[in-house]
Specification:
Signal peptide: 1-19
Largest sheet: 4 strands, antiparallel
Distance between the termini: 28 Å
Strand order of the largest sheet: 1-2-3-4
Keywords: Signal
CATH topology: Nuclear Transport Factor 2, Chain: A
Low-confidence stretches: 1-18
Protein name: DUF4864 domain-containing protein
Mean pLDDT: 85
Shape: globular
Length: 146
C-alpha cells in the first residue's frame, strides 16, 4: 500500500525547449509566495486547483500537464482513504544552490499521516520557472537531509 500511495510528479525538462508562453517569477520570494498559495489550496483538499496554479510556470505542453493533473485527481480518493482529512501544511525548508536553483519543502498534514511536497525552481536568465515538483509519503528522508 505504501508504494501505491507514494506519489511523484517529477517534471525534468532537460530535453525540452522553452515554450514561449511560460511565465517567469521575478524573484525567489515570488516563487515562495506561489508555493504557499499552492499549499493553501492543496491543504484544503483542493489538490487540482493547487496544482493548476503551477501551470503558467512549467515549461511543458498543456496536454502533458493536463494528463498529469487527471492522474493525480484519480489518486485523490486513495490518499483521503489512507491518510484521512487534510488538516493543513507546514513550511519545512528552503535550500539554495548557487544563483540558479532553489528548493522549497513542505509537509501536507493529514489526520493520520503526512505527505512531503518539494518544489524546485530554476533561474536560467532573469526569471524563475518551476523546474520540478513532487509529493510523496516518504517522511523518513526528511531526517537524513540535514
Amino acid at each position: 500500500m505504501r508504494r501505491l500511495i507514494a506519489f511523484a510528479f517529477l517534471l525534468m525538462f532537460s530535453s525540452m525547449s522553452f515554450s514561449a508562453d511560460v511565465k517567469t517569477l521575478p524573484s525567489y520570494k515570488a516563487a515562495k509566495a506561489l508555493t504557499d498559495r499552492i499549499m493553501e489550496q492543496v491543504s484544503k483538499d483542493k489538490m487540482e486547483k493547487g496544482i493548476n496554479l503551477m501551470r503558467p510556470y512549467i515549461p511543458i505542453s498543456k496536454a502533458e500537464f493536463n494528463a498529469e493533473v487527471a492522474r493525480v485527481a484519480v489518486q485523490q480518493p486513495a490518499i483521503n482513504a489512507r491518510f484521512g482529512k487534510s488538516i493543513g501544511f507546514d513550511f519545512i525548508s528552503q535550500q539554495v544552490l548557487g544563483d540558479s536553483m532553489i528548493q522549497y519543502t513542505y509537509l501536507q498534514k493529514f489526520e493520520k499521516h503526512v505527505m512531503v511536497w518539494r518544489f524546485i525552481f530554476y533561474k536560467p536568465y532573469d526569471g524563475w520557472i518551476l523546474n520540478t515538483f513532487d509529493f510523496n509519503d516518504q517522511v523518513k528522508q526528511l531526517f537524513f537531509v540535514r
